[in-house]
Design goal:
- The protein is α/β, with parallel strands linked by helices.
- The chain has one domain (6-190): 3-Layer(aba) Sandwich (Rossmann fold), CATH 3.40.50.450.
- It contains seven helices and seven strands, in the order βαβαβαβαβαβαβα.
- It has helices at 19-34, 47-58, 69-73, 90-98, 111-125, 143-154, 175-180, and strands spanning 6-10, 38-41, 63-68, 83-87, 103-106, 133-136, 166-169.
- The longest helix is centred in the first third of the chain and has 16 residues, at 19-34.
- The protein is globular, with a radius of gyration of 16 Å.
- The protein starts with 5 loop residues before the first strand and ends in a 17-residue tail after the last helix.
């Protein structure tokens, strides 16, 4: 696989979560800085979003924020992120965040993170997004989601081959290897998007 140059990160904006999630977010950001990986994220200043941005900036890394105008008006944008792109809608935000990235990494988060992750998994299932998707399962946060995915497969809502759409890892140290070793995916995936008996 070609070198990883640009990664989109989905993660929590909530500041009141357990410190273990902040620890892994910081470790991951440091890995990105050390490997000269450009991070694209949702532009927020709080929670894991803000912590990743702070770590990237303090380490001299490259980070781009993409945030809707209405969130900027709420003073939710990170003032230290120089490369901040304002858009009108959440849809535009998501579209720009994933454009041209080598991978997506989802850290723990709320419904916004889950919605972003679900959309890119759907796009990959349809052959419209082809890059690796890595889920960082800090402290088993995504265990139940993983079980739910498998329940979908067992119930014939998804094909078993679709488990290769994403990789789930337990620590930041595993993320880059998961990206490098992800199963190849191409536009022909749409032929297998629908489950058929």
């Amino acid at each position: 696989m070609p070198p990883i140059k640009k990664v989109c990160v989905f993660c929590a904006s909530s500041p009141g979560i357990d410190k273990v999630y902040f620890r892994d977010a910081e470790l991951l950001a440091r890995i990105f800085v050390e490997n000269n990986i450009h991070v694209v994220y949702g532009g927020g200043a709080s929670g894991l979003m803000g912590h990743i941005a702070d770590t990237m900036i303090s380490g001299g890394g490259k980070i781009t924020g993409i945030i809707p105008h209405f969130m900027k008006q709420m003073n939710w944008a990170h003032n230290g992120v120089i490369d901040m792109i304002e858009v009108e809608t959440m849809h535009q935000r998501k579209s720009l965040m994933v454009q041209g990235v080598d991978a997506i990494v989802a850290l723990p988060g709320g419904v916004g993170t889950l919605e972003e992750l679900s959309e890119v998994i759907t796009l990959k299932q349809l052959g419209q997004f082809l890059s690796p998707i890595v889920i960082l399962n800090t402290a088993g946060f995504y265990n139940h989601l993983n079980e739910f995915f498998h329940k979908m497969m067992e119930g014939h809502f998804m094909r078993h081959m679709h488990k290769d759409i994403w990789q789930m890892v337990g620590s930041p140290a595993e993320v880059l290897n998961a990206i490098d070793t992800a199963s190849p995916w191409d536009g022909t995936a749409i032929k297998f998007a629908a489950f058929e008996d």
